[in-house]
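Case study 2.
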Amino acid sequence: MPTYSLRFSARGSSTEKIVQFEAKSSSEALTLADEEAQGRCAELFEDGHPLCKLVKIGPSNLWLVDRMPNNIPAS
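Prediction:
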């Protein structure tokens, strides 16, 4: 099962927060990322490789999912 890392800013702080978790698929990882990020912009990595950048669009429940360059490390 792949290991995913979600990287985003901690609420009320400039500190970066990284959450690691396992998921059966990237679809399941996106669902878990949505719950964890709680509307904040985030970057999602799969087994240390950049998967996508997530940006919440306005007050709706829509996310903009953008591909990330492959040269960004998961930390």
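The helical segments are 26-37.
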